[in-house]
Amino acid sequence: MKSKKVILFTLLFFSAFSFRAENPPYKNPELSPDERALDLLNRMTLKEKFAQMHNNTGGIERLGVRPYDWWNEALHGIARAGKATVFPQAIGLAATFDDTAVYEMFDMVSDEGRAKYHDFQRKGMYNGYKGLTFWTPNINIFRDPRWGRGMETYGEDPFLTTKMGLAVVKGLQGDGTQKYDKAHACAKHYAVHSGPEWNRHSYNAENISIRDLRETYLPAFKALVTEGKVKEVMCAYNRFEGEPCCSNKTLLINILKDEWGFDDVIVSDCGAIADFYTKGRHETHASAADASADAVISGTDLECGGSYWALDEAFEKGLITETKINESVFRLLRARFELGMFDDDSLVSWSSIPYSVVCCDKHKAKALEMARKSMVLLSNKNNTLPLSKSIKKVAVMGPNANDSVMLWANYNGTPDRSVTILEGIKAKLPEGSVIYEKGCDYVDTEVFLSYFDRCQYNGKKGFKATFWNNRDLSGDIAATGQISEPFNFDTGGETVFMPGVNLKDFSARFESVFIPERTEEVVFTISADDGCRVYVDGKEIISDWKNGPASRKDYRMNVEKGKKYDILIEYYQGGGKGALKFDVGLSRQIDYKAVAEKVKDADAIIFVGGISSSLEGEEMGVKYPGFKNGDRTNIDLPQVQKNMMKALKETGKPVIFVLCSGSTMALSWEDKNMDAILQAWYPGQEGGTAVADVLFGDYNPAGRLPLTFYASSDDLPDFENYNMSEGQGRTYRYFKGKPLYPFGHGLSYTGFSYSKAKLSKKSMSVNDSVFLSLNLKNTGLRDGDEVVQVYIRNLQDPEGPSKSLRGYKRVSVKAGQTVPVKIDLPASSFEFFNPVIEKMEVRPGKYEILYGGTSDDKQLKKLGLEIK
């Protein structure tokens, strides 16, 4: 096989020879993407090449090159592009322990992505979130449960993360048998990146041991590059050993390119290049020109941001050569040819995917399946669950019970419908048998009862929204839509308010009619960054029409039952971050005893609490006790919810806690006092149905924890310490304490027994493989799934992890039946860090193979194996 350099010189000669042809080679679909990309590259001016190195690339009319924005998102469904199926958040997908189902899901996601892309192209819409290059999956290791973005990952284990990441890539990119790639995935954020959010633009991950780098932080990236053939890698914001990741020679050149052979697109995280030279951030470079030149020379082909506009200055100063620019632009152009972007739809098989796949019934059914599979039953005292459907009265409470936006998490699309957990429970029982009392909010000692559902525009719930890409609400309209949930807009993470709307310098008008159901005092509450004003029946009740950070403004007003009130909200974004929150309802101090008194006659109380992506997430401005910039400062459940559950427990009725979160929480009190705890994550648009199916026994839960649930925040080392083994240690692989719920934990409504497993051989060579076989019996009265987990302990490496997951299989077994289970363990299953040569390898020696339905040593059975 020719090297890339040989191909480059050969095709440069070919392109120069054919430059004047009427039908230039780059327009010939019979040629390879390499040939076409090089021909097109040689027809471009230097300035045109520079312009291709931004995420929002301009078109080149004279060459027939359309504009393209590389930035698109598909973390758990197509995001930020209007209607799309919203599947469970990534951490919930990890809890399924079913990478086959994850692959099937992302095959559907890429179907929706292709359908949307071709529809946008036909309409001439080329701006953000409309392309085929999806900046997912996030395969960072969720090393610390305080990290707000951990919900975007596949948990704390490198092997599970690898398996899930490979499934995502294959589902998005296709199986490689087609002429064109279906889409392109992006492995992010490379590397050693998992919080804190507050200092990610200045943080230096230093003194990281070679062991941790190779055994924890890099395995998933290596597998996605070498095995998954992922088409993009995104470099992270932070520094690694003093050098920014997006110009880091060790990471980008020595490891990614030279060692792993990656020769596709490297893209910066958004604004990461500016961090090189911005005061108060890394400050490793003098200017945008210096930073941009160094990033490109190091291999970062594409910038999300504005620093690469200084590449012309860098070229003029001799900081970078055109040859180096050509290398990057060639990779960018080749990627677009691989996706069929320069060819007629009739030649691209993926273009035949109809738009009707978006939010189709098949995809909704998959969303429900994945939500069900993600549910983890943490505890179930006295078999409180499942509840009987003949129960006379159930009380449903808590801040997440009737919140559809919580279900969507972050990096989400907009479903055509969502089923809240309250709605899911109501659908299981006769009318009138479910009473709802919110009880409390997430953190505040006041509770806000939203009346947003009493706002309508033209018969539809919510507000009509109109956007302009200027500050003065005039001229051409950029976008319109219907906002059906309380406003919670935020441009953090470069998220637009609506497709077609700028990130900065835009304005909006929202219109609705509020119809109260009773005569009382209500409060209109709004928080905006920058300007906002609110009108009721033409009267301005709130005016904050100026630049500035968000601050909450309230207006109390007496309203009459049945009367119609015209509501108008105007907003403008004046630079920097944009944010807008609005709701209407009642706000009052919580009287825990009085709230509990209202539901004491219920036969069971379901409290749906936890947190939401309004509190945890990417670089947020949240200012609540226990939270900082989207991270948590402790892992306790907010005290207001704990107080509420204590009052509910005093009623003497069974209390079931449904926990919605993107991470783990310290639940020592809850574990002792709640009758059952169900971890529901952020379960997507069908989440309410999935939760209710589990609570009432229509689905037997089998999700398993992809994270360790620690008993206390005191079990956690310093958040900024990336070393895995220091102090108490991190994750189940190094933690020295006793977890509340271990990695891999999850209960069922049935029981399983394992026969003694057998290995296909008692010893093997370093290049060999082995398989483990056993019989699994369902000893209960219900059909159910068990997740058989296989861990390996390297007995000749006492400094290494205590054990490492290296195999798993989710198995369905009918009540009373026994099924055979076989799990392959290739040679790579026994690959561990060798401290002598400081590399990963399969070493001769003795190993323990542990198997069972959890990572808890007390519940695992053991086998020995020798590698000779």
Automatic annotation (TrEMBL):
Pfam families: Fn3-like, Glyco_hydro_3, Glyco_hydro_3_C, PA14. Gene3D superfamilies: Glycoside hydrolase family 3 C-terminal domain, Glycoside hydrolase, family 3, N-terminal domain, Immunoglobulins, Toxin - Anthrax Protective Antigen,domain 1. InterPro entries: BXL (IPR044993), Fn3-like (IPR026891), GH (IPR017853), Glyco_hydro_3_C (IPR002772), Glyco_hydro_3_C_sf (IPR036881), Glyco_hydro_3_N (IPR001764), Glyco_hydro_3_N_sf (IPR036962), Ig-like_fold (IPR013783). The keyword RNA-binding does not apply. Coiled coil: none annotated. PANTHER family: BETA-D-XYLOSIDASE 5-RELATED, SUGAR HYDROLASE-RELATED. Belongs to the glycosyl hydrolase 3 family. NCBIfam families: xylosidase_Xyl3A. This is Beta-glucosidase.
